[in-house]
Amino acid sequence: MLTAAALALSGVGAVVLLHQAWREHRHALDRRAKMLAEAQRLFPAGKVTLGPDGYPDLLVSRMDGGELALSLIADTLVTRRLPQLWLKLTLREAAPRRNFSLGALARSTGAEFYALTHGMPERLAAPSGEMPLILRGDGVPEGAGFEAEIAALFSDPQLKEAAVTPRGVRIVRQVSQGDRGAHLLLRQARFSLDAVPAETILAALRDAERLSRALCDHEAALREAA
Predict the structure, then answer these.
(1) Residue 50 and residue 33: Cα distance in Å, rounded?
(2) What is the pTM of this model?
(3) What are the E-state strand segments in 76-158?
(4) pLDDT tens across 163-173, in order?
(5) Domain segments of the chain as ranges
(6) Which residues of 191-207 are buried (b: 16+ CB within 10 A; e: fewer)?
(7) What is the distance between the alpha carbons of residues 208 and 161, in angstroms, rounded to a whole number?
């Protein structure tokens, strides 16, 4: 009888634990789904979808025919560092505008699976500064003169990557660092914020627009020289 009672009690305990784990999982997914709430307020015409990991993506049509895309990346690959939550903002052109790619990445570990910079074949001389950068490209014209603009962008320590491709400009910024206890004890990525602050989103947009303007100035200079 004692054995049967103990088994029954352990079974009830297992059900309670599973139910609690399910509730916590649902709560975590609900929190993730709302993390771009401030972006929705800034861009009410945007369309929100949820990725396989439960984090939202936001897509906004632009007046020039291009798109503004926002997404979140939970990075847990570097074991000796707390998990990082990154905001990825992309200004997509309606059609290709240039024939080269350029990427700058700060504090590279080699594990940035989301970074466009790692996929570019040419290693370039990075601009000098306090932030350790790698600079790569593909077909970047000589004397393009983007070094000063890139160095100015990366004076902000929250900036992780700035990249240019024929179809647009991408900025990756740090949003949050994972909870130390959850990471060390449970190997989980828990972030304390409920929504990405509007200031972080607008800072990424300003960076992207600044880099886009520099590209436009460069293209205009090439047309004048021709």
Answers:
(1) 7
(2) 0.81
(3) 84-92, 101-106, 122-124, 133-138
(4) 999 999 999 99
(5) 1-33, 34-225
(6) beeebbeeebbebbbeb
(7) 11
